[in-house]
Every structure is written in C-alpha cells, then in structure tokens.
Amino acid sequence: MADLTSPDVIRGTLDLLILKTLTLEDMHGWGIGQRIQQISRGILEVNQGSLYPALQRLEQRGWIASEWRTSELNRRAKYYRLTASGRRAVGTETSNWRRYVGAVDLILES
What we know:
- The protein is an alpha+beta fold.
- The protein has a single domain (about 10-110), classed as Orthogonal Bundle (Arc Repressor Mutant, subunit A), CATH 1.10.10.
- The protein is about 60% helix and about 15% strand.
- The chain has four helices and three strands, in the order αβααββα.
- Strand 2 and strand 3 (about 75-80) form a beta hairpin.
- Helix 1 crosses helix 2, helix 1 packs across helix 3 and helix 1 crosses helix 4.
- The longest helix is centred in the last third of the chain and has 25 residues, at about 85-110.
- It is globular and about 55 Å long.
- About 15% of the residues are buried.
C-alpha cells in the first residue's frame, strides 16, 4: 500500500521517469530533464534540485552507472546509463506505478 503523504511516491515517480528515459540512450543529467519535458509535451518539468539527487539515489541502488564524457557542446558532462539491474527495475517499477495509478483512478471514478 502506498502512503499518499510519503515523499517516496513523488521520488518513485521521478525515478521511474529517469529509468524509462535512459532506456532510449545514455544521457547526461540536463539531457534527461530535457527529454522528460519533451516527451511529456512540456507538461512535466524536472528541476535540477530534484533531478540530481534522484540520479544519485538510482546510482546508489545500482540501477544506473555514470561516467564522465565530452558532451555534444564539447563540455565535460556526467553521462548516465542503465545497468542490467536497472533494466529489470524499469519493468517492476512500471507495474507498480500502473497499479498505483489504477487505484487512484478507481477513486476518481467513484
């Protein structure tokens, strides 16, 4: 059961969006935020104050790994990629999210 007052619900949502975004390709943090905004047609905007702690959290869990590379603008940037564990987590976290949304939808339609 999800506690609606828990910041874990919001964190879990951002974590899932990051994981899903990284299924497309390795990206640096700014690119991840931009891709989420682009795919959501501008509805979702991820501020850096939330994005970078989420990236650290996912790296600590072993779901993503990072390395320093040169960006397309010829700047040094930390690029993130999914690990094998992260690829499995995408499926699990997606199922959990859909179950959560389904429960909220049941309440909204009652």
